[in-house]
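Exam revision sheet. Question 4 asks you to relate a sequence to its structure. Input first:
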Amino acid sequence: MRLTGGLRVASSVKSGPDLLVRNEIAADAIARRHNEELSVHKKRPIKPVRLQADKNYIEVMGKIFAVLEHFVEVGATRKSVAFADLARSVPFARTTVHRILYSLEKLGYVEKDEFTSHYQLAPKFFELTGPAVHFRRLQSIAKGVMQSLLLRFGETINLGILEEGQVVYIDVLQSPSALRIAAVPGERNPVHCTSLGKAMLAFLPESEVQAILQHNPMIRRTPKTITQQKHFLEHLASVRERAVALDMEENVNGVVCVASPIFDQNGRVIAGLSVSGPATRMEPKLAQVQEEIRNSASALSRMLSPSALAPDALSPYRRSVTGNPSLP
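Answer key, structure tokens:
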């Protein structure tokens, strides 16, 4: 006896119809078994392919900003928002909205009126966003003025602010000349040896100037760098009178820079505008550059301050910025 297709076939059967029938039966059994297995496999449910979630995305952040964006959108038409209105406006559960509002209130970014149960953005929110909006507006307004200076003198034009006791460039238009002085936005420089730094320091209270110098040593960058604090404070007094600061190769050998301060609507210095170039090109036109940079910075201050600036006792220059002779 031997196995053929799982069925026993008698060895005594030599040939003929019986053998043929037996072989057909065996083949049918094998085919039927295969079909049954295939049918069972087809009936098994196919699991859906699950897309992998973004592991770096924090879902709750999207919900928090959806709430804040709603406050900003409705802020133009009404001051506060009812909880029910807010809950209808965002696509998640009321309990989630309540927890987000509670958290924002605890952090100081949202205020709740206990009588009406209405919510509104708190001053802390605007303190957080105000500087970014302010400097974005400054960059936008300054662009045309900077382009005019670039066309007039063909030298690099810089817009900078004070940050952590250093000059930070927030916009730069580079000179088309092959030999040029080129900073890049975000670059930092010391305050004591740059025209931008001196232009801004000159219009800060002396206590702030002292604090900045204490945390930022007056390192000698070139043989012409001022490193004595007493001498530097006297130098700032002359900058205050003329509203123009000079860097006569004090930061980089062979480079001259001229800067003037820019004021906000409260009369506080917030930025500086400068022209920089090789000394060989800058010195012959130094008088023209000083006058033009002072006028350009003054124009920017007026654009940022549609109303008269608050009284300030630091310098008579600010009277000319606003045309207000009543300022001291």
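Marking note for examiners. The radius of gyration is 38 Å.
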